[in-house]
Amino acid sequence: MDMIHSAKTLIGHALRPFHAGGEKLASNDPQISRAGGIEAFLDVGSVAFEADGPIPRKYSGEGENVSPPLRWSGIPASAKELVLICEDPDAPKAEPFILWVLYGLSALQTSLPEGIPTTQSLAMLGGLMQGKNSAGKTGYTGPMPPIGHGTHHYHFQLFALSEPTGLSSSPSRDELINAMSGHVLALGDLIGTYERE
Question: Which residues have a Cβ under 8 Å from the Cβ of 5 and sit 6 or more positions away?
């Protein structure tokens, strides 16, 4: 077991120079950042961890793998829908690793409880929808960076939209970004960190 762990650590160290990059986050996508119309920045936070602080193991792939509680404020009065995308730009791949995609959130909603069920539609939360993460599963999957790859930064990006996305089936991240293009009124980004030794 120690030999396997040592081998994984060596691989993680070897992959340290490789990252998707923050410029590839959804909030930095040209369709979002250059579309104009962004009125404000949202205050996104969590009672489970501080901004730029470590995400507790409970919310990781090593722990209970449940979604953390989130809260936000500053939604413009004209917003019609909220979208949440959580990504890891430090993943050693071409694109950020997607941990969570939520859309169809009511603009009147100001928080999400801990442990959102991993189903596509959530009637208990006003019928909001969840897309697939990079693990190919619906809903949230927690941080699980390569051992030895260093500290990863997880961006919980919240978008307030002037128009509903109109999406009913589980879209890809790119399809969701395309549907948001030109409709983002405000955005916020809560960053949490996680590292596997």
Answer: 147
In single-letter form, the type of residue at position 111 comes to: S
Report d(CA 16, CA 148) in Å as an integer: 8
Phi and psi torsions of 177, nearest 5°: -60, -40
**Strand 128-130 versus strand 152-161 pairing type:** unpaired
Helix, strand, coil share (%) of the chain residues, nearest 5: 20, 30, 50
- List, as one string, the DSSP characters of 108-147: T--EE-SS--S-SEEGGGTTEEE-B-TTS-BS-----PPT
Per-residue pLDDT reduced to its tens digit, 66-81: 999 999 999 999 999 9
pLDDT value of residue 40:
72
CATH of segment(s) 2-194:
3.90.280.10
Helix (H, G, I), strand (E, B) or coil at 71: strand
